[in-house]
Model the fold of this input.
Amino acid sequence: MKTASRYLLAAFMIGAGILHFVNPGFFLKIMPPYLPLHLELVYLSGFFEALFGVLLLTRYSRWAAWGIFALLIAVFPANIYLFQHQELLPAPPLVHWLRLPLQAVFLAWAYWHTRPQTYPQPLA
Done:
């Protein structure tokens, strides 16, 4: 189950990373104005999302999971900014409410993959 979860998380991260390059305009809209170099940060975060997603599928998966964890914390201000300015992404208010705790789910998911995989011990 953990292996399937790792592949799914990797797919989410790679897909999200690619979206930063395919549609940077969406991510630029939700950048808090107090951050500098908006376009550069969008590309940088997209690069690391995709990189950590790929690395999650290698022997460096635990390090990649820590990278994902840190990255999710780093981009959280954009999610708060979007919540505060819901007109940037027209959606029902419930969607905006759910996006914030969804970040906690992704944090927990990434954290789970920082732990070594353990296997059940055979019964003696």
